[in-house]
Amino acid sequence: MSSSRDGIQVVVRLRPLNERESNNTAARRCLEVVDQASLQYTGRDAPANNHFGFDRVYGEQCTQEEAFEGLTETVRSVLQGFNATIMAYGQTGSGKTHTLLGDVCDRQQRGVVPRAVAELGRGIADCQDDCQIKVTLSVIEIYNERIRDLLDPAKENLQVTHDRERGIVVANATAQPVANERDCVELMQRGIAARAVSATAMNAGSSRSHCVVYLIVERAFADGRIECGKLCLVDLAGSERQDKTAAVGLTAAEGSQINKSLSALGNVVNALTDPRGKAHVPFRDSKLTRVLQDSLGGTARTVIILCCSPSLLNDAETLSSLRFGIRAKGIQNSVQANAVKRTPEQLGKALAAAQAEVEALKQRLALPGSGAGSSGDTPSGTGGLQNSIDSSSGPLQPGRALGLARGVHKWVLVGALQLAGLVAYFAAAELLGCA
Ligand SMILES: Nc1ncnc2c1ncn2[C@@H]1O[C@H](COP(=O)(O)OP(=O)(O)OP(=O)(O)O)[C@@H](O)[C@H]1O
Ligand SMILES: [Mg+2]
Question: Could you tell me the Gene Ontology terms of the biological process aspect for this record (predicted)?
Fold first, then answer.
């Protein structure tokens, strides 16, 4: 993929024309794939430059397997302690749920989420490191600005918090340990089945909530270190025009909440790519943008899959999605691995070792003849730093060189003492949970 390592990657997937679109004789197309990384918009209100370039463009013939191929590296990075996000964006009926979930039980038709589970399974099997690996699964939905736990639907107004080891997390969401791919997919299916879905004129199985699947991988090493990576898979509810979806009553109310959170997402993307560079980023304007905070302009590797209809019937929505994607491509994330968690025992050991080092250094500073004790401390002393500066005008004598070395030695010891003190301070702070 061509974008910079830390830039958000944006790929486009066109879905085939559906029956209604191909039966409409007046309907033409609004998108043509030019090559693997660009397409041409041929709909109404086309901008002067109607070519759009992305990290990858998949045409209508693209299989579920091909759509996943470019994502394997992102998924695998979670095993090295990175956070990664894969999010499907697009108007209602454009193929987001098909791309992300597909037919979970069918090997050909399964989407990104079950394939990611399988890929992590392969990564774990290949892992050469001496560590124990634990994978947990959470499934949540954001429905009408409330976060519901789809693995335990009784939990229905969860809050978003920031966790030092895992970044942005949904507090108290069920995190179910999973032992193998089958377990994980079964549990995920159970969660997804509880998601809010309704029929609209645009999509018989329209998602009425944003759904997020979290796969958290923890690697515990023999020395007590724990490394944590989080894969966040987001199937957004689609933006929709009420006249097109023919939504009324509850479905219309859901639609307006969906549009509100998607417009908050657009505002965050605009703020992050503001050329003046200092705009306030309104992450707190919606639950969706808060959940995505470390995926947009944060530390995660992020891939957005823009799902588009190539039909002229949907040209305005398709053009709007392309513009969103171009803007999002400009977001720079500072990809970095999560902080390594240490157990209290390990922190206790680190603290004891640092304290012992402080004591040893203090004793060495006090030792006569070490060049760091009282005899060398005074400016007039033979081993003092001052002495070596004074001697710089004359030719270098062995004794003078030794004086310099002794002076440097003292400051190296003082520096080491300060460093060891700092290490002890941080270990103690972390142990007490205040770092
Ligand atoms: N690439 C594709 N190949 C074949 N069928 C597809 C493809 N993409 C989408 N479809 C079909 O189009 C219909 C709508 O897709 P889907 O439900 O995934 O849309 P969506 O973007 O999730 O919509 P919403 O926002 O309303 O939830 C489904 O019947 C789906 O199977
Ligand atoms: Mg959907």
Answer: microtubule-based movement; mitotic spindle organization; spindle elongation
